[in-house]
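Standup, Tuesday
Yesterday: got the pipeline producing structure tokens again.
Today: sanity-check two examples.
Blockers: none.

Example 1:
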Amino acid sequence: MGSRQPWTTAHGGTDRFFQPTARAGRPDQKLKAWGSYPDWSALVRGAIVWAGQPDPEMARESVGGEAEPDAAQLRGLIVGWQEIDPEGEGKTAARVVNTLAERQGVLSGAPRSAGGPF
């Protein structure tokens, strides 16, 4: 059924990755600690940067800016859902869509259909 060792042990992943950095004395890459993970930051990011690869922090920073609109949309969805279901009774997706269609019809002045879109 194969080895039950973790991948990093069975395939020498961590050894191959960290040994060269360790042999070099784990040179300080002068990286700002990543949040509350200073040891991980020094070990893992330090090894990555020492090996000549880009600092993972750069990817984190670029994704952070892109994720902000998604976070705002998610907050809007949660607030909107609370408006549609203030008692927290639970609504089906069809019921929510119908409610939104009715509200939109009222706001735009368009006639509402008897059964809604569903």
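Example 2:
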Amino acid sequence: MIPMKDEKAVSVVISVVHLFGLLAGVAATVNLMYIPEWRGSSEAEHMTDLFEDFADFKSDVDLISAVSLEAERTISSKISMGGGSIPVITPHQVRWDAQNRSIKT
């Protein structure tokens, strides 16, 4: 083994490795303890929005079927896609625009 002449940097390297270990531990704790709870409330909010979107869709279908029994009609209605988002973890929410037939973020 080659003897080291200068051991001043060893304590800095050990400190950096310990800091990375601490950050990894904190990130793992957040992933295990907090994100499932945040995701659950986000999905509950999304289900409420989805329920309202489907209720609006049924209302539109009922309205069109009552107005025009014989003629063909086209309707479009907004239906939310995706499961909500957690601001830091999943910042994007995707929506399907049925009128333009495109996905909006």
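Quick observation on example 2: The helical segments are 8-33, 35-67. The beta strands are 79-80, 95-97, 102-104.
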